[in-house]
Here is the input.
Amino acid sequence: MLIFIVRRTLWTVLVLFTISVLVFVIFFKTPGVDPARAIAGRNPSPKVMAEIRHQFGLDRPFPVQYGLMMKKIFITHDLVSYSNQGTKVIPEIGAAAPATLSLVFGAAIIWVVMAILMGVAAAVLRGTVLDPILMIIALIGISMPVFWLGEVVNLVTQSRLHHTFLFSWVPPLGYTPFTQSPVLWFKGLIFPWITLSILYIGFYARVLRANLLEIQNEDYIRTARAKGLTERRVLFRHTLRNSMITFVSLFGLDFGVLVGGGALLTEVVFAIHGVGFLTYQSLTNLDLPVIMATVIYGAFFIVLANTLVDIAYAGLDPRVRPA
Amino acid sequence: MAEQLLEVRNLKVSFRTEDGVVRAVDGVSFTVSEGETLGIVGESGSGKSVTMMSVMRLIIDPNATFEGEVIYKGRDLMSLNQAELRQVRGSEIAMIFQDPMTSLNPVYRVGWQISEQIRAHERVSKQAARARAIELLQAVGIPHPAERVDDFPHQFSGGMRQRVMIAMALSCSPSLLIADEPTTALDVTIQAQILELIRKLKDEFGSAVVLITHDMGVVADVADRVAVMYAGRIVEMGSKHDVFYDAEHPYTWGLLGSIARIDRPKPRRLTTIRGLPPSLINLPPGCAFGPRCPQRFEMCDQVPELAPRAAFDHTDACHLDPTIKRNRRDRTIHPELVEGTNEQSA
Here is the structure.
């Protein structure tokens, strides 16, 4: 186990290093991209440009520039935004993370519960008309782009039907920290949660159904029936338990991506100032330090999620456990 | 005659498919007495597994239809509801399957899987069930059962897994054990061990055994009575001695002739049954074996009944006259032997 952790940590460091170099090269060294110009604003004089270059260290050799940036991100935490000078990037991400985590955790709970319900129901109801209906609903869920769905939800809950009793309780867009008001936190997040989870519910329900049907044909399911177990026990303790191996691996990766800022569109549509929102803003402003920091933040969570998936996988499937 | 434990009456199983209705089992009747071992032989697709799976009602294909009766200890299993069926499965009738590599759930420890079956049928504590699981593992010859009980299936070899399956099957002392090709996936040396184990435990637990196999050698080894199946029907049934030494059906002759025997003069080549088994969607009219049968004559256009022709407890489904059969049989099963005797006598 210790070896596993050490190996994983080294692996994480390697991945983060590679990603940071790649992103750095893309944003700082792509021909035609000049960070100084982005900072300087319109029609800067050559003298101003030179000053800016010097001030931001852009006149130093490339590896030094990279090293300085990494030092500011990881050690001194004083990386400063280009477009919004004076704002320190790392504390900004730290402040945005709770919103993202609230959004993603809530959505994940909804999507796991609903996907299991729908997937199991479809598999059990196979051969009836309900199975294809459930799967078509799932497909519709997958097909609706989150930015469109979110806007429709906003249109209904914030505008068209906001004055009716149905949606009058929905607070204005934005994120209220849990510590400030748990009730407002919940009310403000319920529609973002649903919107974000719908895509995943559809996808996971379909994957789970297919997986359940596959496992239902396994010999050990026949054995379980021959043992005289109840159908419910066969379904939950034997079929679903084995399906969870696939389900959890997928879930871990998607969850990592979302925590890492992948819920960007949902955050933008619902004006939730999380990490995804920050990424979105920095991309529109070409605010390189923020892009660097959010990308590294995202990469970290994806690698972390990968590690957790591997640990969970070993927990779920004894065949892959180290002897 | 011993009391009938299981009586299958005119069992028919068919599956609707895109190509038509597959008559996998087409009117099979047989009985199993308490404590006896019935071997069901036949090639792949002859309906032997489907027959026994239907007895356990383990076929849940919505396209399958069943007819006939399966009387077990006076109750028709075909008419039981799910709850009643569960009490029979695993407790009264247990089953071992062909492939031990896939028959155990990979995510649970073997002891857990055995205990699960015990606890599905008896109100015992987890500790008691676990203790029984260890005893059972000991009984099926797994070394260090107290430690192995907590191992996962993938930590066992194929033969050991089949032993675990047998331990599980016997955990509730069933009256009937159905073994569906229990040795097919195993090495020959392991096969012999597993068969020996089944025989030993059958005596210990007093269970009757239905052994499904395509291996005549396996049947010769353990069965008391033998049923030979072809194209969803039983074509010959009798005591092991009768079927092996006084085979009545030309299909059985073919099966017996295809065995390489070391106790007989070496034939130039083994007898084969020409042709392929018929499609179960379009069975040939008359005797299903007719098109492949070297003994075919006019009467074979009618379906032969499974009837006692040679002796009262030795039934076969062939129109040929028993005396004619006797003359032709040895030539099919071991032609070399017959020719050898002819030369000597000449």
Observations:
- The interface with chain B takes residues 127, 218-220, 222-231, 233, 237-238, 241-242, 245, 316-319 of chain A (CB under 8 Å).
- The mean pLDDT of chain A is 87.
- The first helix of chain A runs from residue 2 to 29.
- The two ends of chain A are 11 Å apart (CA to CA).
